[in-house]
Each structure stands twice: as C-alpha cells, then as structure tokens.
Amino acid sequence: MKRKYYYLLIGIAAFLLYSTFVEPNWVVRKTYDVRIPGLMAEKITVVHIADVHTTSPGYRERKTLRMVEEIDPDFVFVSGDLLKSHSKLATGIEFLSQIRSRYGTYLVLGNADGIIEAGLRWKRIGKDSLNYRILMNESIDCGAFRLVGLDDPVSHRENVEQAFAEVNGTKPVLVLSHFHPDSLLVDLESRGADLVFSGHTHGGHVGFAPIVGLFPYAYRSKYIGGLYSIGQMRLCVTRGVGTNIFPMRFLCRPEVIVVNLLGE
C-alpha cells in the first residue's frame, strides 16, 4: 500500500514538473494550407501567433522569434494578448521590434493588453512603426488582400461597422481578432470575410478530455484550436504561445501557426 502511494506521488510530481516547466516552453510549429478565392498570388506565407503573455524575454519568447526567423514569412499576424496585464510597455515593444517579416507585422489588442492601449492613448507609442502596425477597428490594403483588424471583443471594444468601412469586396478579406464569439463570426461571414485569425482560448490549456473542464479556457468557445470551416469562411484559432492565469500546459503545446494562403 505504501508503495502504491509512493508511485502516485511520483506520478503527480512528474505531471506537475512536465506541465509547468517542460511543455509550456516546448513550442511547436503547425502549418495549414488555405485556398482563398480571388487571391491574386500563387502563395503568401503568414505566421500567426497570439497570447504570448510575456513579462520579460525568456526562452519561450526567444524560441518563438527564432521560429519566425526560420520561416521567413511574408506577413506576421499577432491576434492579441502580447502582454500580461502587469507587464511593462517596453517588454511588448521589445518583442514586437524583433519580429521580422517581408511585408509587415500586424497586431490587434487583447483583453490583457491594457498597457499598450494606455501607451497609445497617452502617445507613449504610435500605432505604426518600422516593424509593426496596430490595427484598431480599421482595415489596410496588403496588396493581394484586405486585412481587417478588430479591437478586443472580450472587452467589447470591437466595432465591425467601422472596421469594414473601407472594404469594398474587390479583394479577399482577412480578419484579425483576439477572440471569436459566435455572434461575431456570423457577422463576419455575412460581410464576406474569407479567413479569420483568432486566439484567446489557449487551446483549453490541456488536451486530455477528463481534466480539460478544470480550466476555464475550455469554455471560451467551441472553436478552441485549429482550422475550421464556417459556411464559406475559414477560422484559424491558435492555442497561443504563453500562459496567463494557469502557468501550465498538458498535451496542448504552445504553437506558432504558419498559414500558406493559396490562390484559386
């Protein structure tokens, strides 16, 4: 009996060590090929990351930056929660300034990015820099497609009408949003969005059904991680890079997503 409890304690200790110190730093690369009707390009490579939740540059952040550098993407999309709410503004700017892409890095804010929002409000930073651009309920022409950036839906700051004001249907429409409530997805599909990039779910933090319900992230959406089809629209949800409330991951490795946009 004592040996049984001894092995149980060893198993619990191993689980805690692995899920707290190993898997949260074991960043994986995942690749999807998505055909976009009307895309006037043979292939455009996009790196999609979210929920970095960084407080200081560490191993996970450096690994993520190296992976992006190795991929050498055309674009990088960051769908919110770059920081933890108590992070320093300089921490996020340092991370963003090190991301490299051929044609641009685009960021939307998440519910934990209040310090970035404050920096914009008090003019400590600008929405545009040499290395990145922050989109807040607006769109930008990226050549082969139009990119729409929504402000954070979790904090109810999104304004879809304003964000789509300059979308005229002449080019494919990609949308960058921190989260994807069902009502928002219905609205975006009705407006002709081809592909939505989103995060916030953290993939549920665990990939083991009996315990996934212990984590509130699992209930944020039925679209918890991966590539989905919603009518004629596609939805790409990343499990994110970092952790926030729960500093653990189990069978749900942090990820850098590569989306190859293919013309039809």
Structural commentary:
This protein is α/β, with parallel strands linked by helices. It has one domain (2-263): 4-Layer Sandwich (Purple Acid Phosphatase, chain A, domain 2). It is built from 7 helices and 12 strands. The chain has helices at 2-22, 59-71, 89-97, 114-121, 160-163, 182-190, 209-212; strands at 28-36, 43-49, 75-79, 104-108, 133-134, 138-141, 146-149, 173-176, 195-198, 226-230, 233-237, 255-263. A 6-stranded mixed sheet has the order 1-12-2-3-4-5, with helices on one face. Strands 6-7-8-9-11-10 form a 6-stranded mixed sheet, covered by helices on one side.
- Uncertain segments of ≥5 residues (pLDDT<50)? none
> Quick one: CATH class?
Alpha Beta
Q: What is the CA-CA span between the terminal residues?
A: 64 Å
Report the portion of residues in β strands.
15-25%
Any idea how many domains? 1
Q: Give the overall average pLDDT.
A: 91
The residue fraction in helices comes out at 25-40%
- Placed side by side, the strands forming the largest sheet appear as 1-12-2-3-4-5
Shape: globular
What characterizes the major β-sheet?
Answer: 6 strands, mixed
CATH topology description: Purple Acid Phosphatase, chain A, domain 2
Quantity of strands, as a count: 12
Structural class computed from helices and strand pairing: alpha/beta
The CATH level-2 architecture is identified as 4-Layer Sandwich
Secondary-structure element series: HEEHEHEHEEEHEHEHEEE
Evaluate the radius of gyration: 19 Å
Going by CATH, the homologous superfamily would be Metallo-dependent phosphatases
Q: How many helices? A: 7
